[in-house]
Amino acid sequence: MVSNPSTVLAFDLGASSGRAIVGRLDSEAGQITIEEIHRFSNDPVQVGNHLHWDILRLLHELKQGILQTKHLGYSHIESLAIDSWAVDFGLLAANGELLGNPYHYRDHHTDGIMSEVMDIVGREKLYALTGLQFLQFNSIFQLYAIQKNNPELLDRAATFLMIPDLLRYFLTGEKHSEFTNATTTQLFNATSFTWDASLIEQLHLPAQIFLPPVASGSRVGSLSPALCEELDVPSIPVIAVGEHDTASAVVAVPALHDDFAFLSCGTWSLLGTETEKPILTEQALAWNFTNEGGVFGTNRLLKNIMGLWLINECKRAWDKEGKSVGFAELVKQAEAVKPFQFFIDPDDDMFLNPAHMPKQIQQYCRDTNQAVPQTDGEIIRCIMESLALKYRFILERTEQLSGKTYRGLHIVGGGIQNELLCQFTASAIQREVWAGPVEGSALGNLVVQWISLGVIANLREARKLIRSSFPVKTYHPQDEAGWQAAYAAFLKVASRSTVK
């Protein structure tokens, strides 16, 4: 029996932090309210030559989030769910034990692997089968790297579980693979909606480790008796939502119409649109766009862009040098800098995982015969203007592939707190930007739980509720001539990496 207001718990795990958020839906008032009850860092760990996720620490933090719901007086949680970043995974032995900490997608064990797989399968065939953007850290390349460098690990593996699947297993004892995250592996067939057996066989990967995917919104167990005893909490149903955080973020886009363009803005920027089916054209392949499964039969045509990782890594480098300047102050410094002096392609390979991001940005500018940013503010302005211009580039290509024109761009996620970036984006694309909500992935997680529980009827109703419950700020374009000239300069500079 679902109460009114209905109360559910979302765990939203990003590549740098995670949060537990309680959502309450008052059906009679038509209002959603949320409360962040636990926030924690998600810090990868370097062990020897490899970078790993501290998966057991994440499990500990999930437990703390469940405990907080009890301590804060939420006595009846109807369900909980987890979403996270894509591509990474854990491997279980036949006895159900985890075979080592999952690799971090920025680990170097996939260096050079993508070209080896392309030689075996062929670029065109791989795209025709999976419809996925080629990124060196995709699950397919991680698994092939393990097979090549540590085949004993795959020999011992009985089950492949992506990060939310793995954490759910720890909570419930049940093993399930969720659809939206499975589609990010580049081992999932984009038209049959199953693991691609021919591709798995061709790469000599163990087919038996891949579980049939469950649809978003499926109930996939309850907290195990052992966990309930450990935490002294009642058993709570667990639901598989759109467990790829981008899938959840797109659910939360408060669009008034079915045709819209979105930007999920965080560590990664993901820009695209929803389509009825995957777009697998030669042009989509040439432009390296991705097709990822969405909730309730939708497809996400989008492009992964490096995103706020660039700013985060600059801050991390400066923190190590003892500067310790906050993000707000860095944005303020950037705002004071003269515009349009330096540009980078945010997706150049040299920015994937450098030792010192500010120096790498300076080197890019030297390599492209530009002036070189010297101050922290100049470097941050360079990043922000370049991101905004890259958004225009990808938005225009999205329109060409989808055959649709979008009046503006919806931005969701933590990046909307950077108001200068939102304004730059509106000016770069010369259209309105609608920014909000901040907690996009968590809200998408919550509303899919409510749809599963029967509290919300469908996706359209969910988006309407989100729009009426949370503010959306509109940004209007400025300085058309200046941004148009900047775009031409950006394209010239970024052509060295063929503006991916």
UniProtKB/TrEMBL annotation:
InterPro entries per UniProt: ATPase_NBD, Carb_kinase_FGGY, FGGY_C, FGGY_N, Rhamnulokinase
Main enzyme class: transferase
EC number: 2.7.1.5
Location of the Carbohydrate kinase FGGY N-terminal domain: 8-251
One Pfam family hit: FGGY_N
Carbohydrate kinase FGGY C-terminal domain span: 262-451
Family under the similarity heading: Belongs to the FGGY kinase family.
Name this protein carries in UniProt: Rhamnulokinase
